[in-house]
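Journal club prep — side note

Before the paper discussion, L.F. wants everyone to see what a predicted structure for a comparable chain looks like in token form. Sequence:
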Amino acid sequence: MLAAPPTKATVVTVTDADDGRRIDNFLTSRLRDVPKSRIYRMLRSGEVRVNGGRAKPDRKLKTNDQVRIPPLRVGDDAPRSVEVPIPANMLTAVEQSILFEDDAIIVIDKPAGMAVHGGSGLRWGVIDVMRALRPHAPVLELVHRLDRETSGCLVLAKDMRVLRRLHQEIAGDGIDKVYLALVAGSWPAQLRDLDMPLKRTQKGSADRQVEVDPEGQHAHTVVRSVKPIGQASLVEFELLTGRTHQIRVHAAAAGHPVAGDRKYGDPAFNEEMRAAGLRRMFLHAARITLRPHEHSKPLTIKAPLPADLKQIMEQLR
């Protein structure tokens, strides 16, 4: 049972179940009657302490850490529910997008236009909606992320041990992620290996910018298949690493930017695609292969190409 917001300062000892969990998510799960804006204000002001010191929202907790939670008033200035309810149509859309669920993970077909988490002017993200849909789940965390405009397979973990294992497998070669992208021009048949280091030039989540840089992090994308579509190409990319904007930057660096990509794309090509009816970036997480449980067999989950992208394909043919 979830505890009510404390009316006096309390100190909570982190258990193994929350080892590795971010402090903001830890507080959100424990204080579900407290608005997220209040939780982040507590973190920014230093009201929340970990082992006696201040903690940034992305700090990862360790077993036996001591977390001080300040007293919280429950009244008109601290409503017991989220400030504005999540719209029913958003709850329904995410519920209907679930592709797979068991006691370890949930895989959803993330709708294009929906961010994975709130912030930067967005009130809700997929993680907020899923926590509202599964209010009794003690843990619900993103295993990886997708850009807001990208649709397709998104994995959430229901257990911190599962989350840590899947993070390790993503960092290695234990999870296969395959994307479909429509790119400009005719993709060269011999161009199958994109191994170019990437570096962020803009820190933080706001307006992130990434470029190919010899001093950047190792980034490796493999082309699995190519299908010519008019003056464009439908390319199946497999991520061997998981860097920010990896496919988008690699495709642009190869001279074949993703259709509808306003950050790294080609304006003239984007205008042509818009005239054909494209209203967002043509990038879709088509399938993912992973092991929900440590000793289970690999499971492949597929997300069909959305109707709006299918329509563009038909229009270009």
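L.F.'s comment for the group: The chain has eight helices and 16 strands. Keep this in mind when we get to the figures.
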